[in-house]
Amino acid sequence: MKITLRIPYFFLLVSLLLFGTHFPSSAQENLDIRTIQVDELSDQQIQELIRRANEAGLSTFEFLQMAEARGMSSLEVEKLRRRLEEL
């Protein structure tokens, strides 16, 4: 599957994980990945995010690349990478 076809899956996964259970009324709002704070994510949320990304055909590396390409700061991507290594 081409990376361009994986982008919608990425946004769906991120929005469902981060906003689906915590803010059900805001599920229709656009996700701004630039504002995600990795330090505020639980280990379970990160594991679920990676599991869903893998189910969509993304490797962890591709997931991190897409997060940065979509506006997540390099610092937050690095924090996420480190958190993944610790899990």
Overview of this structure, please?
This protein is mainly α and 87 residues long. It has one domain (3-86). It contains 4 helices and no strands. α1 (3-20) packs antiparallel against α2 (43-55).
Features:
4 helices; mainly alpha
The total strand number stands at 0
Q: What pattern of helices and strands is seen along the backbone?
A: HHHH
Coarse shape: globular
Largest sheet: none
What is the count of structural domains? 1
Q: Helical element count?
A: 4
**Class by alpha and beta content:** mainly alpha
Radius of gyration: 12 Å
Spans with pLDDT under 50 lasting ≥5 residues? 21-30
Short description:
The chain is mainly α. It is 62% helix and 0% strand. The protein has four helices and no strands.
